[in-house]
């Protein structure tokens, strides 16, 4: 393989990668991904020590330790376009030699764990629920630009959901994509407080998630359409804006990924959390109780 071109792997003068502004030595093997930059401090308050915190644009990275375990928290911002940047640059940081611009001979695997907020698309999933996504379905289109080899479970989801849409005689506005979380990480979050399901990822917040203020959605009955779907004893549980890209890119690049979300809104019932910040803290606390 030839060295990566300067325009493909952009390295800043200080040796940091282009968008994230961090160097290879800055990243721990476990990376907590949060959308909201303000959530980084809420995560790192659980650290015993913090080595550094860096910000470039909306991307905030903080690495520290809990006991002997080194851990990184990184704010991605909102949406799959940001996830495309973050996952590719994290992988480059750990699997490309920045001096030679060549791939390293020994692959380094990261644990990429999203701690996010989400809306339930089932009436039986109340606000305050904690959801671990065994699968992701992308209604966003990002993974259509990548060569992706689905594992057996993701292939099964693809076949099942495509068949489901065909039976409905429903042409979704974009071709869905499919992915599976790391089974190793899924197995950690099997306690009674964790609801498991299939997370759908939208390309936007309003019409793509069936929200209408003045501009109208072309799928106003989206939730009623997808509610009956079931695969691997799981239902489509929630809708957000990052999971499918995290899972898809992690599978391509050889990393482990899992998305954990707290439900702030129940879309079918119209309910919304009275104290979203308290639920955010609940998710973070529940994650650390299991993972550390």
UniProtKB/TrEMBL annotation:
InterPro entries given in the database record: Nucleoside_phosphorylase_d, Nucleoside_phosphorylase_sf
GO function term, MF aspect, one: uridine phosphorylase activity
Gene3D superfamilies on file: Nucleoside phosphorylase domain
GO BP of this protein: uridine catabolic process
Nucleoside phosphorylase domain residues: 31-265
Signal peptide: none
GO cellular component: cytosol
Transmembrane portions of the chain: none
Matches recorded under PANTHER family: PHOSPHORYLASE, PUTATIVE-RELATED, URIDINE PHOSPHORYLASE
Stated name of the protein: Nucleoside phosphorylase
Species whose genome carries this gene: Aureispira anguillae
Source species taxonomy: Bacteria, Pseudomonadati, Bacteroidota, Saprospiria, Saprospirales
């Amino acid at each position: 393989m030839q060295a990566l071109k300067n325009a493909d792997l952009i390295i800043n003068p200080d040796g940091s990668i282009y968008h994230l502004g961090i160097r290879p030595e800055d990243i721990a093997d476990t990376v907590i991904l949060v959308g909201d930059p303000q959530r980084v401090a809420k995560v790192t308050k659980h650290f015993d020590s913090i080595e550094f915190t860096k910000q470039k644009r909306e991307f905030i990275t903080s690495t520290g330790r809990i006991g002997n375990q080194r851990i990184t928290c990184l704010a991605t911002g909102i949406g799959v376009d940001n996830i495309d940047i973050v996952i590719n640059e994290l992988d480059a940081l750990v699997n490309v030699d920045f001096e030679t611009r060549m791939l390293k001979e020994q692959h380094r695997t990261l644990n990429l764990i999203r701690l996010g907020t989400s809306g339930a698309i089932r009436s039986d999933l109340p606000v305050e629920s904690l959801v671990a996504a065994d699968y992701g379905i992308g209604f966003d289109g990002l993974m259509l630009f990548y060569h992706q080899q689905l594992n057996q479970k993701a292939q099964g989801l693809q076949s099942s959901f495509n068949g489901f849409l065909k039976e409905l005689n429903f042409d979704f506005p974009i071709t869905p994509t499919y992915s599976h979380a790391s089974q190793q990480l899924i197995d950690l979050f099997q306690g009674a407080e964790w609801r498991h399901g299939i997370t759908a990822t939208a390309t936007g917040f309003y019409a793509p998630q069936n929200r209408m203020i003045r501009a109208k959605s072309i799928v106003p009955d989206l939730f009623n359409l997808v509610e009956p779907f079931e695969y691997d004893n799981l239902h489509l549980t929630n809708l957000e804006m990052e999971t499918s890209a995290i899972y898809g890119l992690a599978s391509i690049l050889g990393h482990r990924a899992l998305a954990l979300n707290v439900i702030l809104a129940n879309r079918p019932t119209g309910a919304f959390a009275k104290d979203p910040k308290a639920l955010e803290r609940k998710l973070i606390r529940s994650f650390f109780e299991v993972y550390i």
